Every structure is written in structure tokens, then in C-alpha cells.
Amino acid sequence: MSSQLAEGQGPSPSQTSRPRPIPRPSPFARRALLAFIGLWLAVQILVPLRHLLYPGSPHWTEEGHRFAWQMKLRDKKARATFTVRDPASGEEWQVYPGDFLLRHQARTMPSRPDMVLQFAHYLARVWAEEEGIEGVEVRVRVCASLNGRRGALLIDPERDLVQVPRDLWHADWILPLEQPFERPPERTRRRDIEC
Amino acid sequence: MPGKGSGEIDSQAPTAPAGFFRRLEDGLFKQVDASSLAVFRIGFGVIMLVECWRFWEHGWIARYYIDPEFHFTYYGFGWVAPWPGDGMYWHFWLLAVLSLLITIGLFYRAAIIVFFFAFTYVFLLDQARYLNHFVLVSLIAFLMMLVPANRIWSLDALISRRLGERPAEVPAWAVWLFVMQFEIMYVFAGIVKVNPDWLRLEPLAMWLARRADAPLIGPLLLEDWVIAAGAYGVILLHIVGAPLLLFRRTRLPVAVVYFAFHLANHFTFRIGIFPWVAMLGTLMFFDPDWPRRLFERPRQALARLLSSERRVADV
Q1: Domain range spanning residue B217?
Q2: Best interface-test mutation with A: which of B132, B133, B192 has the largest number of A CBs within 10 A?
Q3: Residues of A in Cβ contact (< 8 Å) with B212
């Protein structure tokens, strides 16, 4: 059916001979299109390279990792325990990702520092809006294992993340990856993540 | 020889850069066969239709976009939020209808424009669902808004033919945009794999080990030389192979390797629509009239067969 549409086998075969030439675009339209194509290509090439502007491995920090065709490169397992603290009363609460998130979110968030930060801000909001406790501090202990390495702390556990703004600058609260590469003793079983 | 060559260029354009740009411009604006772009449109529509069905079938619409109380929005897109109530279901219905319209090429421009925004909206809802293949779909949909992918093999073309228009060609840039998009993706996919962990075979070795129970090839997936061949072969394929897709002489063998690569990925890692979109994109590297020639050949063979049968009958 589709190949019939192709040649335009209409009622009279004489009309199917040659397609009418399409009017050429004006010089201005051509230049505008060329400029757009150049800009598009520049963006497509520069955006995936932006991880070079950040220190450290993008597989560990995740800075510049998205929108960069980084595919099948990291096996990252992480566990996070959040501590919400009310400085006024000194009261503390332990929060696990699964308490507030669905499974797929709880599994992804701990290994992605920017999402950990988002979640910390969310916890502060929940405590303020639902519990009426304003001004809490949120700290997190994230133990992460990258590509078979032993576990290591991903985020500075002393840092109150509520005070950290969300921006695109390098996050100094992400700890550098110091764990050396080491293949896991058993390939089929992940290491237990301990820090 | 050098004098002659430069003389020729000079006669066409005053300076060398202008000559280059003119040739580039002429190359991009020449008219080429519309059939490869039409195949791309149909393939893309079908893949997205299947993807909508998969979201429905697996219950992902509720799980990912309705059930969570909190969504990890993208930086600068904090205002993007799921529809209330059953809205997300209707949204996926809309995406499915748009995919169908794109496939059959009816109201193509309107359909692809709405599709781009509707799909990108879903992508932006939650970073926990970040997937490179959704980025690819968004980029493709954006480029598809710009090109006349409905020029042939579409209901739009059928209607415009009734109105007396019958262009069967598209400007070369419309095809070339997709070629470049996939070329960039492939080359980057190779460059990023030149990193210490991948060169030491991780995480590939760990992942392949989980497939060690596969029939026949299973035990091989635990062999370091097999894993190394795969890990280094992929880098070679993307960094050397992908540029070779741009040349007519090397195109077919490299494309065959790419198809094998994507099919192997599909069966090993079950990564959704990505292999299918990538294979569809790889087809764009071929001469734009390849589908027409492909369909032409059996038709001519059939015609020959019929005419020879007639001759036999006449005898």
C-alpha cells in the first residue's frame, strides 16, 4: 500500500511523470536555517562535554553526567540515611528514602548527589509544613560503591544540606572518590556496601 | 593541477571560504528523495505507539507519575508537575493518538509539534526516570517538527495530491539533520567509554556475569577475553565505525555491525526502545532513496514474472 502512495499512482498515469519542482527558499531563509543548524550542532557537541568543567569523575559526582550519552558506564549502589535535626529542641529523626519515596525513586536517589540535595530540601519542607517545625537541619550519610569498588562516603555527612542552594556550580559537599579500583571478589554478587 | 583547481573555484566565488559555504549551502538545499525520511517517520511513530502501550501495560503511568508524592524535577523546570486525577492517563492516550497520526502521516506537522511538547513534558516530570533514550526521542521529535517527513507515504500527501501538488522530494538538510544527530550520539557514546573503569572491563564484566546462565554463549560471558573484546570493540565501533557510516563504501558493513550490536544489546540488557530508535537512525545514513529502490526491485521482479507468464500463456 505504501509503495503505491510513493509513486502517486493516481487515476491518470500521465500526471505521475515528474514531481513539480519545489520553490526555492529565499536567501534569508537559507541563511537563517544554516545559522540554526550550526547553533544546534554546537549545542549538541558542547553539552555532552560540560563534565570537563567539573573536577572528579562524572560517574561518581554525576556532575555533567546527564544529556551526555554516558551509557552503560556505571554500576553504582548506594545507601542513604538522612538525619533531620531541630536545632531549637535538639530533637533528631532518622529518615530512610523508602519512607517518603517510591521504590524506583528510593533506589535511584542515593547515588545521585543532586537528587539527594533535592530530597533533603523536601524533608525540610515536610517538617515545616506538616509538622510545623521550621528551620530543621538535614544531614545525610550516603555510602556508595562504584563499579565494584568498596563502599565510600559520597557526601560530606557534617554538612547541613538545607543551607546548600541548588545550582549548577561544582558541589563542594560531594566528597572526592578516593577508593581505588578493585574488581569485586565475586562477579555475580555485589559487595556489601559498608563505610 | 593546483593552478587549474584553484582557478575553477575562483571563477565561482571570490574567496575560498565563500566557495566552501556556497558548496555547503548548495549541498544542504539540494532536493533529495523523500522516502528515507518517510520511513523514519513511520518507524518513529510505530516505536512511540509501542512505547505508549508499554507504559499502559506495565502500569508505569500510575507508578511513575501518579503514585509518587514527590517528584525530582529538573533544574530550572521545578514548575513541571503531573496532571491531577486521571490526567496522566489522558496524556498518554494523547501521546498514543499523536504517534498514530505521525505514523500514518495525517496532520503531521500539528501532530509532531504537540508530540514534542507532550513527550518532553513527561520526560521532565521526574529525574528518577532519566533515560538517555528519552532524551534522544525528545531531540528527534524536535528535529522532526522542522522537516517535511509527510511528503510521501502519508495521508497528508494523498490529500495534497488531490489538490494538485505532488512534490516527492525533500531538502537534503532535512535528512542530514538526523544523520548528524545520530553521528554525534555514536561518537560521544564511544568517547565516554575511554575511561579507566571501562578499560578495566567494569561494569561490563559484572553485568555480563549475570547473564552467564544464557544458553550456549553463557559460559563465554565470564571469560575476560570475551568481555575485553566487547568493551574495546564497542569503543572502536563508535569512534571509528560511526564516522565510516558517512562514506558510501564503508557504510553497509558498519551498519550491519551496528544492527548486530543493537540487537545484542536488546537481548542482553533489555533496554526498551533504544536499540530500535538507534537502528532506525542508522538507516538514515544510506542514500535517501534506499527505501524506494528496495521496494522497486521486488515490484519490477514481479512485473517481469507476470509479463513472462503472460508470454508463456500466449504461446
Answers
A1: 172-286
A2: B192
A3: 188
- Tell me how far apart the alpha carbons of residues B60 and B129 are, in angstroms, rounded to a whole number: 11
Q: Note whether B194 and B272 are same-domain residues.
A: yes
Q: Exposure of B21 by Cβ count < 10 A (0-12 exposed, 13-18 middle, 19+ buried)? A: middle
Q: What's the number of CA atoms in the CB half-sphere (13 Å) around residue B29? A: 19
Residues 6+ apart with CB under 8 A from B155: B104, B105, B106
CA torsion sign, B233 to B236 to B238 to B240?
A: negative
Full domain range(s) for residue A47: 24-53
**Are B195 and A104 inside 8 Å of each other by CB?**
no
Nearest to A45 among B25, B157, B184 (CB): B184
Structural domain count of chain B: 2
Cβ A147 vs Cβ A181: under 8 Å: yes
Checking if the pLDDT of B149 tops 50, the result is yes
Which conformational region is residue A62 in: left (phi greater than 0), alpha (psi within -120 to 50 degrees), or beta?
left
**Is pLDDT above 70 for A18?**
no
Pick from A116, A124, A165: nearest CA to A141: A116
Q: How many domains does chain A have?
A: 2
What mean pLDDT is reported for chain A?
88
Residues B242-275: tens digit of each pLDDT: 999 999 999 999 999 999 999 999 988 888 999 9
Residue of A2, A109, A122 lying closest to B128 (CB–CB):
A109
| Chain B partners within 8 Å of A61 (Cβ) | none
pTM over 0.95: no
Asked whether residue A69 falls in the same domain as residue A136, the answer is yes
A10: helix, coil or strand? Answer: coil
Round the CA-based radius of gyration of chain B to a whole number and report it: 24
In a domain, B77, yes or no: yes
Residue B312 binned pLDDT confidence (cut-offs 50, 70, 90): low
**B160 → chain A, closest CA residue:** A8
**Rounded-to-integer distance, Cα B279 and Cα B70, Å:** 36
